[in-house]
Amino acid sequence: MRQRRSKNYRKQMALYSRAFQFREPYQVLVDGDLCYDVTMYKMNLEKQLENILQGTIKPMITQCCIKSLYDRGDEAKEAIELAKRFERRRCNHLETPLSQSDCLNAVVNVKGKNKHRYVVATQNARLRHQFRAIAAVPLIYINRSVMIMEPLSPATQLAVRKSEEEKLSAGLNNPRSRA
Ligand SMILES: [Zn+2]
Questions:
Q1: First-to-last C-alpha distance (Å) of the chain
Q2: Could you list the residue range(s) of the whole structural domain that residue 64 is in?
Q3: Which of 56, 86, 148, 164 has the most C-beta neighbours closer than 10 Å?
């Protein structure tokens, strides 16, 4: 990984942890298509995620996302083996499975917030676009065999500023911190 990119990622993760209490091991929800691309490009998913997030990680996959791999059949054999190693995130859509993007939306977006502090690794550009509107959803995808984390979205930047301002005013109103 290029030096500058690595430094940017470190800064980003420091913000996610300070402003939004992200903690290791980072829970990464991986979609079926990203699993598939990882095997196609012969990448090491866990290692790459650790490099980007610069800490320990816990890859997870929802029931609907792994089902999408089974639906692809033989061509996805390797990707299924990979996904089986991950912790299964129960999404309770087993009876009527959802599309991967609807499922991830249901799991991540709790009343407009990323309540469980998931990192989302998805090849679905439209879904990433939707998640940019929610503060503090780190987004990862693969672009031509390079794994990338998106820069902080404007919604996230705004929430960071708000949280820093709140801390500042809390500090000013705390007599102990004035001494
Ligand atoms: Zn689901």
A1: 45
A2: 3-171
A3: 86
Q: What is the 57 CA–ligand 1 centroid distance (Å)?
A: 21
Interval 64-85 mean pLDDT:
97
pLDDT confidence of residue 1: 64
- Which residues have their alpha-adjacent CB atom under 5 A from ion ligand 1? 62, 64, 91, 93, 103
179 lies in a domain?
no
pTM: 0.93
CA of 85 from ligand 1 middle (Å) equals: 18
The alpha carbon of 88 and the centre of ligand 1 are apart by a number of angstroms equal to: 11
Q: Which two tokens stand for residue 64?
A: 């609907």
Q: Tell me, what's the pLDDT at 175?
A: 65
Whether residue 178 is contained in a domain is answered as no
Whole-number pLDDT of residue 179: 45
Would you say residue 38 lies in a domain?
Answer: yes
Tell me if 176 is assigned to some domain: no
Residue 51 has, within 13 A of its CA and on its CB side, a CA count of: 14
